[in-house]
Amino acid sequence: MDSLTQLVLGAACGVAVMGRRTAVWKAALWGGICGTLPDLDAFIDFGDPVRDMTYHRAESHGLFYLTLLAPLMAWLASKVHGEAALFRRWCAALWLALFTHPLLDTLTIYGTQLLQPFSEYPFGVGSIFIIDPLYTLPLLFGLIAALSMKQFAGLRWNAVALGLSCVYLAWSVAAQAHVARIVRAQVGADAVFFVTPTPLNTIAWRIVVMRDNVYSEGFYSFFDKHRNIRFDEFPNEPALMKELEGNWAAQRMAWFTHGFYALREVNGQAILADLRMGQEPDYVFQFAIAQRDGGALKAITPQQAGSRSDAAKLLPWLWARIKGHDIAPPR
Q: Are 75 and 95 contacting, i.e. CB atoms less than 8 angstroms apart?
């Protein structure tokens, strides 16, 4: 999730656990710090765009490492504020702030390596978009109430906000499962596909179905008048992967995307796109990974080749699509 959401979630967890045992601002401050800490790996240069992408949300998001970090952060907070008697409570509060960060990230589709150092597997449920105001705003209002109102009332509103946020996450998972059932009924039980929300909401969903030499993209809104999803097909060149067997970036991306990637050759360059983030033709993570040289594709230092969607075109379409208007997306 975005940095603001993680900060607010961490602060809200800190306030909820510490309660009236310390000043609300202290609990919010340290909870917010711990809610932000795991994402500091985004500032590390791992060497190239593919490494930067696939090593993000790795060790810094491992539940084992974060559990080890919690007592250290609790010791620091209790030391700074002279609250040694509250060390255990600080430990519980800051562990929760650290722990919920990767758990929330796992509900996005990106890929979070929760089990580091025991496994690199990138978990990604894909039930919530990386920025979702309906999740973040209640947490923010609850935190503001906790900081500005009388302590008992403020703490109550903070707890209510945390409860609502959990309900919203549960809704997102249930909604995703419902859309997946609709898709499977249309494309068949053996089809390989994923379902993930369109930006900023959990009403309109994007579906990508993988086939041999094409992939299909479609959209479904809970306000659609029917369940027949219109899919657009786009060419794919999976045979290129045979030429890229020794290409680390190609193999790494194939693993990280769980196979939801597209390959094509453009002007002698092999371009690999992560189909999970973005929509046709604009993908956030799209890389040039090889160059045709003497008939063979030779590895190059991966270069970003993606493009950002035009918000001026995308947002009006998205709003119409959320309302159930089955109109073609901007291309």
A: no
Selection from 303, 238, 317, 289 nearest residue 48 by Cα: 303
**pTM confidence score:** 0.93
Structure tokens at 144: 């503001």
Give the angle 89-94-96 at the CA atoms, nearest 5°: 100
Q: What is the pLDDT of residues 46-76, one digit of tens each?
A: 999 999 999 999 999 999 999 999 999 999 9
Nearest to 1 by CA among 53, 39, 52: 39
Could you tell me where the DSSP H helices lie in 81-150?
87-106, 133-148
Q: What sign does the dihedral 263-266-270-272 (CA atoms) show?
A: negative
> Is the Cβ–Cβ distance between 81 and 22 less than 8 Å?
yes
pLDDT digits (tens, 9 = 90+) for 9-18: 999 999 999 9
- Rounded CA separation 107/125 (Å): 5
Structure tokens that stand for 65 in this block: 């490492």
Q: What b/e sequence results for 144-172 when a residue is b if at least 16 CB atoms lie within 10 Å of its CB, and e otherwise?
A: bbbbeeeeeebbebbbebbebbeebbeeb
* Nearby residues of 71 by Cβ (< 8 Å), 6 or more positions away: 91
Phi and psi at 23, nearest 5°, equal: -65, 140
Residue with tokens 């993908």: 283
Given a contact cutoff of 8 angstroms between Cβ atoms, the answer to whether 191 and 209 are in contact is: yes
Question: How big is the CA angle at 149 (ends 144 and 154), to the nearest 5 degrees?
Answer: 70
Spatial neighbors of 144 by CB under 8 A, at least 6 apart, are: none
